[in-house]
Amino acid sequence: MLKAGVLGAGHLGKIHLKLLKQSEKYELVGFFDADKKAAKKIEEEFGYKSFPTMESLIDASDMVVVVTPTIHHFECARKVIEAGKHLFIEKPITQTVAEAEEIRDLAKTKKVRGQVGQVERFNPAFMAIRDKISNPMFIETHRLAEFNPRGTDVSVVLDLMIHDIDIILSVVKSPVKTVSASGVSVLSETPDIANARIEFENGCVANLTASRISLKKMRKARFFQRDAYISVDFLEKKCEAVRMKNAPEQPDEFAMILTNAEGVQKQIYFENPQIESNNAILDELESFAEAIKADRTPDVSLRQGTEALRVAMLVIENFKQI
């Protein structure tokens, strides 16, 4: 088993600690948190070993999970990699693209593996249907959340929208051509609501909306491609594919048939893939362990995390503030 340590024991850090303790692929060695009072409380309440310094935790680990505030990601990640240890780092990978590129390149030089915590890649609804998403040409996403001060150290783009940016980049196999965006600051110093339009060189267009001051939660994505419409509800863990094929000469009496302007008849088929219940954070951690063991590229590599950040920063840079 891989010896795992956690840097940062806030809300998400505690979740990682709990799951690493449960996992059969890791041996949890402990954690480090700069807040000594909070660290002592966690150690007493849960029994996790608290290390006195970041360096001592890294030395005791084979793999380190970085769950600190984003402002500290670069410093922590660099220390982990320079020590020759594998790195799992929560999104966004770093504060700037330059920092992310340095981390990515350093990991390659040190020959260690790195994975970014883009947890929606492991959402069971997306996993059940992602193989059916093929060459989408229009994508629409909505990610709405109630206000939570915990995420406001970064804009809504890096807090929420980056999840959908990563999902879109994972299914659109084409470079980004142009980005336009609008953002509104309501409660925070940075935008709380954002809309972005991303155009790709192959003609695909993605329209993304994210808000962290909504009255209800929503995490949905819709993918439109030739003869198919695919929807994913990340919150409710549901997905559906609606496909259209040329209608047979003698369709079933219950078949749903549409006739287009040219008189061509299409039959509509509904597909609801079976969704396997899972713990997405545990799955992403264990997939990383498997990547380390097999010496293969992780499912969400540092390169992919860097590209998601690059596009997110393009969105921010192109904001037309309202």
TrEMBL record:
It holds the Pfam family GFO_IDH_MocA_C3. InterPro entries: Gfo/Idh/MocA-like_OxRdtase_N, Gfo/Idh/MocA_Oxidoreductases, GFO_IDH_MocA-like_dom, NAD(P)-bd_dom_sf. Residues 3-117 form the Gfo/Idh/MocA-like oxidoreductase N-terminal domain. Gene3D superfamilies: Dihydrodipicolinate Reductase, domain 2, NAD(P)-binding Rossmann-like Domain. GO terms for molecular function: nucleotide binding. SUPFAM superfamilies: Glyceraldehyde-3-phosphate dehydrogenase-like, C-terminal domain, NAD(P)-binding Rossmann-fold domains. Residues 151-216 form the GFO/IDH/MocA-like oxidoreductase domain. It comes from the Bacteria. This is Gfo/Idh/MocA family oxidoreductase. It comes from Aequorivita ciconiae.
